[in-house]
């Protein structure tokens, strides 16, 4: 479990290295994000935070993969 700027920094680094992430849960208080491998997308870790900074960073996105539709 992570909180605050640490969660945002970790997710930004994950994206910068080209690894995908996906929102797993948002209960209105905390968000949980699955951190996945670059080569196949299997989940390797989770990031959970109640900090509004992470919610603001996500800005309604549910994954790091751009919508191609």
Helices and strands in order:
Layout: H1 4-16, E1 21-26, E2 31-36, E3 43-49, H2 52-58
Antiparallel strand pairs: 1-2, 2-3
Helix pairs in contact: 1-2
Task: Please provide a written account of the structure.
The protein is an alpha+beta fold and 69 residues long. The longest helix has 13 residues. The protein has one domain. The mean pLDDT is 88. It has a 3-stranded antiparallel beta sheet with strand order 1-2-3. 14% of the residues are buried. The protein is globular. It contains 2 helices and 3 strands, in the order H-E-E-E-H. A hairpin with a 4-residue loop joins strand 1 and strand 2.
Short description:
With 69 residues, the chain is an alpha+beta fold. Helix content is 29%, strand content 28%.
Number of domains: 1
Strand content: 25-35%
What number is the mean pLDDT? 88
Largest sheet: 3 strands, antiparallel
Number of strands: 3
Sequence stretches where pLDDT stays below 50 over 5 or more residues: none
Following the backbone from N to C, one meets helices and strands in this order, namely: HEEEH
- First CA to last CA: what distance? 33 Å
> What Rg, in angstroms, do the CA atoms define?
11 Å
Strand order of the largest sheet: 1-2-3
**Residue share in helix:** 25-40%
* Backbone structural class: alpha+beta
Shape annotation: globular
Q: Number of helical segments?
A: 2
Task: Name its key features.
69 residues, globular, 2 helices, alpha+beta, 3 strands
């Amino acid at each position: 479990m992570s909180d605050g700027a640490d969660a945002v920094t970790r997710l930004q680094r994950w994206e910068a290295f080209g690894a995908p992430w996906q929102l797993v849960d948002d209960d209105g208080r905390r968000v949980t994000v699955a951190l996945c491998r670059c080569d196949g997308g299997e989940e390797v870790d989770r990031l959970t935070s109640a900090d509004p900074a992470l919610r603001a960073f996500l800005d309604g996105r549910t994954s790091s993969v751009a919508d191609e539709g």
